[in-house]
């Protein structure tokens, strides 16, 4: 797999990459992940990293001019891998990974599967890195269109993403394969299934009283994720309800948002945890009486929603196509970009038993029925078989090629 990011960093697309790789390994395939120099190692995965760049030691999150250097190094790393080893498929994440994969795939005659996680140009606009109509917008949009239309097969995490590819980039629908973000529902589970002492100790650690109502958020802290609007919503909630707490779990810019909470006068009810390891996320999320994902993007996925669903708590999101697709009739939706609407919807999740009764149970049932990784793994393998020209996929076979010296597997 080609992962043009600082893998692994406990959030978003990293979780998708991690779970896809683990699922493929369980199905008997060999997976190698090529990624940036920075990032956390995962014990059960084969991860190869680029050389470092001396002026940039931080994790890369979102759009950044430094990614140009990282992507050049990543292309060189993948090229070296393909020279030394034989792979069946290049599974490329994000547009940068797809560009590397398509270029080298042609050179080494290896088919490419593109894991699409949102529009490249729209993401750059959401992150404030690109201006619509600016000098580089047109060339980048054309590059994005070329990547989308050239990829032999594309995985999309949402129906909305498929619609974008077909309507905005004229992609052939036959090349698009639905692969929603999924969840391990044995790990992400309701609060009643966790050890009471562990939960009590965690509440004590974060200063959450036993009778306090807790809103949980776990993910990146950024304006396009709605972090600022969430703090503004807390200001409004606390003007009407005193015993509500926000457990704000994630990174980066913790100090920036901590100061924002002080400025809004809500710091006494907001708990900043910093980064939470993915393995510890289920226990932390179980502290919530409600969960929130106020992401503003209209094109990116929102995998955290499915983890919330499996946890079995009422879940609030801005009213976007992606949120509606995941949560279905059981989500609570606020007007996009409106802090007051977000506050009222969170209050409904916490206090209105006429609305929220049974929502958590129905969300968990929906997550288990529609979004389990085992089913997703079979879809991945079926798509690999298609691009390889095989009639049927044997999901249990070993991905190693019968060769004396090289492993045949998935380059991701």
Number of strands: 14
* Terminal Cα span: 0 Å
Radius of gyration, in angstroms, nearest whole number: 21 Å
Shape verdict: globular
The amount of beta strand, in percent, is: 5-15%
User: Count of helices?
Assistant: 16
> What is the averaged pLDDT score?
92
Global structural class: alpha/beta
Name the poorly predicted regions. Answer: 391-408
Order of helices and strands: EHEEHEHEHHEHEHEHEHEHEHEHEHHHHE
Helicity, as a percent range: 40-55%
Largest sheet: 8 strands, parallel
A few lines on this structure:
It contains 16 helices and 14 strands. It is α/β, with parallel strands linked by helices and 412 residues long.
Would you give an account of this structure?
Helix 8 runs parallel beside helix 9 and helix 11 (304-311) packs across helix 15 (359-370). It contains 16 helices and 14 strands. The protein has helices spanning 12-26, 67-84, 94-108, 120-126, 137-150, 159-169, 196-205, 227-238, 254-264, 281-285, 304-311, 321-327, 339-351, 353-356, 359-370, 373-387, and strands spanning 2-3, 31-35, 46-49, 89-93, 112-116, 153-156, 176-178, 213-218, 244-249, 270-274, 290-293, 315-318, 332-334, 410-411. Strands 1, 2, 3, 4, 5, 6, 7 and 14 form an eight-stranded parallel β-sheet that branches. It has a six-stranded parallel β-sheet with strand order 10-9-8-11-12-13, sandwiched between helices. By secondary structure, it is α/β, with parallel strands linked by helices. The chain is globular and about 60 Å long.
């Amino acid at each position: 797999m080609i992962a043009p990011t600082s893998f692994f960093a406990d959030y978003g697309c990293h979780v998708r990459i991690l779970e896809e790789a683990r699922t493929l390994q369980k199905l008997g395939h060999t997976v190698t992940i090529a990624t940036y120099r920075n990032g956390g190692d995962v014990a059960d995965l084969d991860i190869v990293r680029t050389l470092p760049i001396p002026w940039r030691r931080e994790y890369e999150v979102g759009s950044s001019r430094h990614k140009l250097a990282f992507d050049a190094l990543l292309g060189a790393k993948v090229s070296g891998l393909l020279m030394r080893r034989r792979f069946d498929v290049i599974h490329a994440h994000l547009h940068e990974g797809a560009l590397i994969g398509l270029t080298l795939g042609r050179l080494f005659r290896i088919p490419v599967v593109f894991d699409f996680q949102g529009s490249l140009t729209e993401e750059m606009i959401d992150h404030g890195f690109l201006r619509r109509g600016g000098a580089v917008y047109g060339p980048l949009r054309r590059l994005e269109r070329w990547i989308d239309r050239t990829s032999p097969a594309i995985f999309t995490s949402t129906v909305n993403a498929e619609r974008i590819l077909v309507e905005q980039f004229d992609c052939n629908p036959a090349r698009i394969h639905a692969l929603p973000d999924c969840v391990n529902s044995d790990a992400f589970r309701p609060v009643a299934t966790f050890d009471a002492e562990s939960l009590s100790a965690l509440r004590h650690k974060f200063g959450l009283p036993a009778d306090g109502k807790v809103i949980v958020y776990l993910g990146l802290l950024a304006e396009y994720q709605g972090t600022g609007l969430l703090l503004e919503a807390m200001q409004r909630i606390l003007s009407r309800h005193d015993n509500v707490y926000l457990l704000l779990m994630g990174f980066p810019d913790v100090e920036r948002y901590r100061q924002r909470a002080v400025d809004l006068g809500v710091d006494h009810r907001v708990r900043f945890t910093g980064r939470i390891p993915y393995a510890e996320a289920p226990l932390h999320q179980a502290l919530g009486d409600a969960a929130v994902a106020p992401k503003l993007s209209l094109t990116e996925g929102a995998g955290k929603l499915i983890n919330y669903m499996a946890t079995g708590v009422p879940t609030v999101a801005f009213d976007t196509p992606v949120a509606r697709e995941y949560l279905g009739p059981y989500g609570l939706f606020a007007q996009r970009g409106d802090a007051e609407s977000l506050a009222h919807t969170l209050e409904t999740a916490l206090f209105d038993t006429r609305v929220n009764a049974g929502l958590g149970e129905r969300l968990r049932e929906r997550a288990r029925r529609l979004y389990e990784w085992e089913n997703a793994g079979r879809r991945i393998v079926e798509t690999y078989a298609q691009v390889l020209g095989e009639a049927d996929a044997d999901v249990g076979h070993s991905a190693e090629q019968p060769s004396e010296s090289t492993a045949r597997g998935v380059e991701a």
